[in-house]
Amino acid sequence: MLVKNYSNARQNLKTLMTQVNDDSDVVTVTSTDNKNVVMMSESDYNSII
User: Fold this and answer.
1) Contact in structure between 14 and 21 (CB atoms under 8 Å)
2) Which of the listed residues 12, 23, 35, 41 has the most CB atoms within 10 Å of its CB?
3) What does the UniProt function comment say about this protein (predicted)?
């Protein structure tokens, strides 16, 4: 699992999306207010719901 801050994730969104899809990687995007999100591929998400 990768951890990126909001600014880095925003600047590298296309690269992160490719990495998440190609490698089944999961990315946690952190924010200064601690309202973090997790990015994962749609196919991985669908497999767990």
Assistant:
1) no
2) 41
3) Antitoxin component of a type II toxin-antitoxin (TA) system.
